[in-house]
Amino acid sequence: MAHYARGSAVAVIRLCNPPVNALSLAVLQALEDGLKKADADPSVKAVMICGENGKFSAGADIRGFSSPERHGGALGPIVSLIESSEKPVVAAIEGVALGGGLEVALGCHYRIAHMKAQMGLPEVTIGLLPGAEGTQRLPRLIGVPAALDMITTGKHIPATEALKLGLVDEIVEENTIEAAIRLANKVIGQPLGPRRLSLKPIPRLPNMEAFLREALVRVKQQARGWLAPELCFQAVRAAAERPFAAGVRRERELLQVLLTSGQARALQHAFFAERAVRRWAAPSGASWSSAAPQPVRKAAVVGLGTMGRGIVTSLVKANIPLVALEQNLEYLNKGRKAVMLLLEREAMKMEGGAQTLDFHNPARLHFTVDFDLLRDVDLVIEAVFENMALKKEIFHKLSKICKPGALLCTNTSALNIDEIASATSCPQQVIGTHFFSPAHVMRLLEIIRGRHTSPTAIATAMQLAKALKKVGVVVGNCFGFVGNRMMFPYVQQAVFLLEEGSRPEAVDQVLEDFGFKLGPFRMSDLAGLDVGWRSRKDQGLTGPSLPSGTPARQRHGQRYSPLPDLLCEQGRFGQKTGKGWYQYEQAGGRTATPDPWLHSFLSHYRDTHHIKTRFIDQEEILERCLFSLINEGFAILAEGIASGPEHLDVIYINGYGWPKHRGGPMFYASTVGLPRVLAKLQKYSEVHPDVPGLRPSAFLKKLVAAGNPPIKEWMSYLSQQSSKL
Ligand SMILES: CC/C=C\C/C=C/C(=O)SCCNC(=O)CCNC(=O)[C@H](O)C(C)(C)COP(=O)(O)OP(=O)(O)OC[C@H]1O[C@@H](n2cnc3c(N)ncnc32)[C@H](O)[C@@H]1OP(=O)(O)O
């Protein structure tokens, strides 16, 4: 709704649709009615538009985009109606003015904002463009370069920056509404022509053509298959090259393309999935709404290897005082140096520089080798080597030293949380917090609930994720949890494809064309091949504990590829050694080049094992890698390791470089169609009966038998009892 009220000469229209005043059809109708009422009332001399509860508006109601009548775009004509008003209209921007919300403000003749307000046109992030004439008005107001930046990235900008850009006329520290009414009274009777953005010429650049050409190259490079940024660019180019009305027509055409592209639906699924995962629930009935987090006033990180360093950096950035602990002075000094370097780099990126990150103060960040200094911390994150015995030893020590109630988190990527917790006297306080490398950059935090983990511990870990500006996803305890467990069959297929005749660069190309930032081989080289090798040795799959006589390409009756082990035996650990699946310019180098040595090594390997080489096409590469990953996702859902498909999607988008415009692996499966995914898995499984990852999961079969229900209904085909959360 929008409330209309008339006080003195200024009519007030207040957008009202909690929690963010999204512009539903009802709100738009009420806004239109309010404008017409104000126009018809001779005692009204000016209009002020604001939002209820200190928020202007977060834009069009995203949930409404799936309904066909929304495609017509009711908002554009209303923005035009505001602009053409003969009475001055002032926008009072508090909280957020995003998307259609900002477009409404652009239709107003004056904009006044609270200094804490945020503004932006984030439509691109949900696969759309600012289709209420925003692509035409914004460049006229702030110029093409700044408008292009805002529209193609969707970034939110603070009021102070908006003022510098000329997006708002004034910012205030106190009461925005009163200031807007004062401004409205002041401008009564002044000419409105110069305030109507549709009539303004585009600010000229001496080299507009060259600027646009270069900008397009940049936009395309960053988009990697994501359509919206390029179409946003085209709409802004139309603003630069055509009169307003023609630009608006072009904007509409481009919006139609996006609305029907499928990417918008995928990105909107991702938007709501990220919000859905905040609402965790345990089978005990405890949930996000009932469990209260414990305050974390002081934390500790144990282990200053690559992960520990990133975690420390994350905590410092979140302003949480902490103790960083290593086992001896040599490791401590090495870790301290690396952390300081990271923090200095982060401080440079932040507004205000080093002053905003107080990391030189030992009361905020204390490096030590003394376990006793962990006595008063509220939360510890252990980030040592991935070794069960070592982790258990540390947790035993922690449970003796830390104060009662302290949360004990383990940054393991696969190990059993219950076994780690068994080394303590407080298993209810033990929880997995799986960070992704680099831990101060990657948004995902997989939060693993053990059998005894308390709801308070889960709530505290989720709160921590929020404080670190990460997306926390609660999952159950199994080998590899959700992310890595789904990754195993994907990487396994990639390696099998090499055995059968493909090359690392061919497999990577297919998956990078699909939209992954890195294909599986480039990714393995970056992460380090030795990590998986160590884990396989611990599992007895390779190395000295492998029983003699074990067939080279079989383990426990299933197909196994020793290729990654053989590379590690040659000292090829990936980027860190300058050689892995690719060759690099030097140890630590980042430019992957196909390696003739590896190609001949593969030929020799195939000859040794009498494997007939064949040509493998792109479709098979894509399907075998992705469908085996998705298949594992269905098994995870059936076992109750995750609460729903959207959890898996959020994990993959934020932790594994899955292209967001494809909505996550489970959403992707729903768009391919489950019958097709099943048929393809059945086909590949028949050819490779010794590969369990290709054997269709019972849950996938059940959904296909149930008639391929929409993704939202999948979980209703499982019983509640199966939940391991
Ligand atoms: C055909 C015409 C085409 C183009 C014209 C215009 C298009 C648009 O305007 S598209 C929408 C553009 N706006 C956005 O993309 C903003 C999206 N929202 C956000 O970024 C954030 O929600 C926020 C910054 C506004 C607030 O963040 P936070 O405080 O963290 O709260 P939540 O994100 O949890 O949001 C609370 C609650 O509100 C729901 N919600 C937010 N925005 C919208 C929206 N535009 N439409 C519908 N619902 C919205 C959000 O889902 C949360 O609800 P749930 O927890 O139930 O999911």
TrEMBL record:
**What is the protein's major site of localization?**
other
Residues of the 3-hydroxyacyl-CoA dehydrogenase NAD binding domain: 298-477
- Residue spans making up a coiled coil are none
Keyword presence, Isomerase: yes
EC numbers for this chain: 1.1.1.35, 4.2.1.17, 5.3.3.8
Name the segments for region: Disordered: 538-559
Q: Which GO terms describe its cellular component?
A: peroxisome
Alphabetical UniProt keywords: Fatty acid metabolism, Isomerase, Lipid metabolism, Lyase, Multifunctional enzyme, NAD, Oxidoreductase, Peroxisome
Q: Name one GO biological process term.
A: fatty acid beta-oxidation
Its catalytic activity?
a (3E)-enoyl-CoA = a 4-saturated (2E)-enoyl-CoA; a (3S)-3-hydroxyacyl-CoA + NAD(+) = a 3-oxoacyl-CoA + NADH + H(+); (3S)-hydroxyhexanoyl-CoA = (2E)-hexenoyl-CoA + H2O; (3Z)-hexenoyl-CoA = (2E)-hexenoyl-CoA
Q: Which GO terms describe its molecular function?
A: (3S)-3-hydroxyacyl-CoA dehydrogenase (NAD+) activity; delta(3)-delta(2)-enoyl-CoA isomerase activity; enoyl-CoA hydratase activity; NAD+ binding
Tell me which residues make up the 3-hydroxyacyl-CoA dehydrogenase C-terminal domain.
480-584, 621-709
Q: In which pathway does it act?
A: Lipid metabolism; fatty acid beta-oxidation
Subcellular localization: Peroxisome
Fetch the Gene3D superfamilies from UniProt: 1.10.1040.50, 2-enoyl-CoA Hydratase, Chain A, domain 1, NAD(P)-binding Rossmann-like Domain
One Pfam family it belongs to: 3HCDH_N
Family, similarity comment: In the N-terminal section; belongs to the enoyl-CoA hydratase/isomerase family.
Q: How does it assemble?
A: Monomer.
Q: What is this protein called?
A: Peroxisomal bifunctional enzyme
Gene coding for it: EHHADH
